[in-house]
Amino acid sequence: MEAALELAATTRSLANLGLREVARHAGLNPNTFYRHFKDFDELGVAMLRDLGTELRAGLRERRMHPAARGFRLSDIGDPATGLDQAQELARESVGLVLDFVMEHREAYTVGIRELHGPSPVMRKAMQDLLEGIARDMTEDLLGVLKLPAITPEEMIEIARVIVRQMVFFSMDYLEQPERHAQIKRQAERFILLLFWGALAARAPELIVQSGLRFPEL
Amino acid sequence: MEAALELAATTRSLANLGLREVARHAGLNPNTFYRHFKDFDELGVAMLRDLGTELRAGLRERRMHPAARGFRLSDIGDPATGLDQAQELARESVGLVLDFVMEHREAYTVGIRELHGPSPVMRKAMQDLLEGIARDMTEDLLGVLKLPAITPEEMIEIARVIVRQMVFFSMDYLEQPERHAQIKRQAERFILLLFWGALAARAPELIVQSGLRFPEL
DNA sequence: CAAAGAGGTATACAATCGTCTACCGGCAAT
DNA sequence: ATTGCCGGTAGACGATTGTATACCTCTTTG
C-alpha cells in the first residue's frame, strides 16, 4: 500500500499503475499481491479506508482541541456573536484543513484523483468519505455555532458545499505555494459568505440590528 | 480524437489508454498517430481545445439568447429586482449547464477526469478552461445583474466558486438521474445563497428595506 | 515536371504486462 | 505430531505495449 501510494502520487493514477510495478517498488514478488488483494480496486478501497479514517480522526481531534479556539461555548446566543464565531471557526477550520493537506499531499493527491476517476468503486468510496466529513462538520457546527433560523438541513447542505469547495482550494494550495495567504483568505471569505447568506435569507433584520460588518479579510 | 474520447469515457482516463488501442478503435495504423501528435498530452490538449471552445460558445450563445430570459435589461436598478433577477439567472444558468452536461456527458466526464488527473499539462488546460468560463460568467453578470455594492473583484470570485461547485453538481446530475430535480434546486439555492451573502455583507439594510424573502425552492 | 511533404501502412523488436501452476518455510491448531 | 493455512517465491505463458525503420501514394509547391 505504501508503494502504491508513492508511485501513484508521483506519476499516474491508482487505476493504471501496474501490478508488477507496485510489487517491484515494494520489493516483493508480483504474485504476492494476490495474497492480499484480488483487484486494484480492492487495494484502493483499503488505502482509502485507512487514510480516510486518519483524516477524519485528525480533523475531529484538532477541532475538539479547545486550546486553539478563542471563544467559549457560553458565548453563544445572539447572531452577532454567532457570526463572529463563524469567522473564527472558518479561519480555524480552513487553516486546519490546508495544514493537513500539506502534511499528507501524496494521499490527498491520489485520493482526489480517484474522486473523478474511472473506477466507480473508488468514486463511491471517495464520495462517502467527503459526505462523512461534511456530517462531522455539521455536527460540530450545530454544537458550537448558534445561528438562529438556520435549520440542520440547511447546515448539512452548507457543509457539503464547503467540503467540496475545499477540495479545489486545497488543490490550489498544493500547486501554488506562493499564493498560500491569498488562498486562505479566499476560502475564509467563501465560508463566511455562505453563513451571511444563510442568515440574510432567514433573518436579515438581525444582521442590521447587530450592526456587524462583513470583515475585510 | 473521436476514438480517444469514446474509449476514455467508457473505461479509463485519457492518460492511460494505449496508443494502439486508440488507433485500432479508429481503424488506423498505430504509427499514424505520430503523424498528428507527438504525445498523448498533445492529443488531450487538442481535444480539450475543441470541446472547450464548443462549451464556452454554447454557454455564451444560450446566455445571450433573449427569448429564454423573462426580464429585460431595463428592469435593472434596485437590489430587490436585482435579487429577483439573480434568482431567474440562477435558475436559467443551472438548467443550461446541466442540460449541456447531459448532452455531452462523454466529453464532460473525460474533461473533469483530467482536472485532477496525473498530467500537469492537462490539469493546467482544464483550469484555464474553468477560469475562462468564470470570466464569461462574470462579464455576463456584471452586464445584466445590477446588485449595488458588489465589486467586479467580488463578482469574479463568486463566479469562480460557482463554476467549481457546478463541477460537482454536474457529476451528481450525471450519476443520479433520479435526483435531477433535487440537484437543480440545490444548485440554485447555492448560487442564491452566495448573492444574498454578498449583498448582506455590503448592504444588509437594503435587503430589509426591500422586504424580499429568500425563495423556497 | 520534379521535388517535397503530408498521411497512411507493414514489419519488426524489445519490454512489460497480468496471470497460471507449482513449490516453500513458518506458525497455529487439532 | 501432523495437518493446513498464510505470506512469499520461481518460472513460464501469451498478449499487448511503444517505437523504430522502411515503403507507398497522393497533393502541393517550386
Question: What this model shows, in words?
Answer:
Chain A has 217 residues and is an all-alpha fold. Chain A has a single domain, classed as Orthogonal Bundle (Tetracycline Repressor, domain 2), CATH 1.10.357.10. Chain A has ten helices and no strands. The N and C termini of chain A lie far apart (41 Å). The model of chain A is unreliable at 67-76 (pLDDT under 50). At the A-B interface, α6, α8, α9 and α10 of A face α6, α8, α9 and α10 of B. Chain A binds a DNA duplex (30 and 30 nucleotides) through residues 18-21, 28-32, 34-36.
Q: What Rg of chain A, in angstroms, do the CA atoms define?
A: 20 Å
Low-confidence stretches of chain A: 67-76
Tell me the name of the CATH class of chain A: Mainly Alpha
CATH superfamily of chain A: Tetracycline Repressor, domain 2
**Which strand-content bin applies to the residues of chain A?**
under 5%
The largest sheet of chain A, given as strand count, sense and whether it forms a barrel, is: none
Helices and strands of chain A, in order, run as: HHHHHHHHHH
Q: In CATH terms, what is the architecture of chain A? A: Orthogonal Bundle
Range of helix content of chain A: over 70%
Largest interface: A-B, 37 and 37 residues
Oligomer: homodimer
Number of helices of chain A: 10
Structural class of chain A: mainly alpha
Distance between the termini of chain A: 41 Å
Total domain units of chain A: 1
